[in-house]
Amino acid sequence: MERPVAIITGAASGIGRHFTLSNREKFCWVATDIQEVGLLEAFGPETRQFLPLKLDVSKPQEWKAAIKATLDKYGRIDYLFNIAGVSLPRFIADADEGYIDKHLDINTKGVLYGTTYVAQVMARQGKGHIINIASLAGIAPVPGMSYYTASKFAVRGFSLAAALELREHNIYVTTICPDLVRTPMFDHQLTLPQESALSFSGSTRVLTVEDVARAIHKAIRKKPLELTLPPARGALAKIGGSVSGLAWLLYRNLYRKGLKNAEKMKYL
To answer: pTM of whole model > 0.90?
Structure first.
């Protein structure tokens, strides 16, 4: 049991799948996802140092069961990587309650439940590190993705507050806010360029899962409160997010740029 024990959500695809597979020998893994078939396809059955678990992050009882299974197998939890998330672009005038529920249940409640229950275990242990994936959309508003924006603002605000609260228990909380990442979520947004235009308004060089993995490793080493990817885009997001009138002035130009970039990205 020399390896640290880690729970990761969203492990069946995207960032979660890549990070788990590329670090399979560095942790004792509890890899979770609502897509049980995807978990088994990616990682195979349970082994001594690997436990795949079906987990709907929006359900507190499933979180409690996953934590119990982790403690029964390994006896402790050293890391929690909250990576599971959804992005369903939609203009508010065209939306229904499903868009609200999906974003808040998975993106927000999933992180809040996981952080809360795992932090309680870590507090009894006397140490731990929780890494929550938010988004630059949690720093600056993204019209057309207002529900995603709301969910990620909540994740970022909660995580920063939790970091200050839990530090006295020797628990670190790091928030990682990436720009657009090339995952199935990115592919879905490309099918909705009008709604997703602001998310495409940066560079046409889209972040990769490898970029986010490097940021997670940096977070593990340095334990910062927050990391933004790329840093320059994160700085601009903080400026735009802090001055609401500036966001309005920039919106139309960024929207047009995003539409053009989305068209280019289809062929990259």
So the answer is: yes
The CA distance from 119 to 19, in Å, is 22
Second-level CATH architecture of 5-183+204-241? 3-Layer(aba) Sandwich (3.40)
Alpha-carbon gap, residue 101 to 134, rounded angstroms: 17
Burial tier of 14 (Cβ tally within 10 Å: 0-12, 13-18, 19+): buried
Counting beta carbons within 10 angstroms of the beta carbon of residue 223, is it exposed (0 to 12), middle (13 to 18) or buried (19 or more)? middle
Residue pLDDT tens, the chain, 268 long: 589 999 999 999 999 999 999 999 999 999 999 999 999 999 999 999 999 999 999 999 999 999 999 999 999 999 999 999 999 999 999 999 999 999 999 999 999 999 999 999 999 999 999 999 999 999 999 999 999 999 999 999 999 999 999 999 999 999 999 999 999 999 999 999 999 999 999 889 999 999 999 999 999 999 999 999 999 989 988 887 777 777 777 888 999 999 999 999 988 7
176 neighbors 133 (Cβ within 8 angstroms): yes
* Nearest one of 159, 135, 33, 149 to 100, comparing CA atoms: 149
Task: Provide φ and ψ at 39, rounded to 5°.
Answer: -60, -50
Active site residues: 148
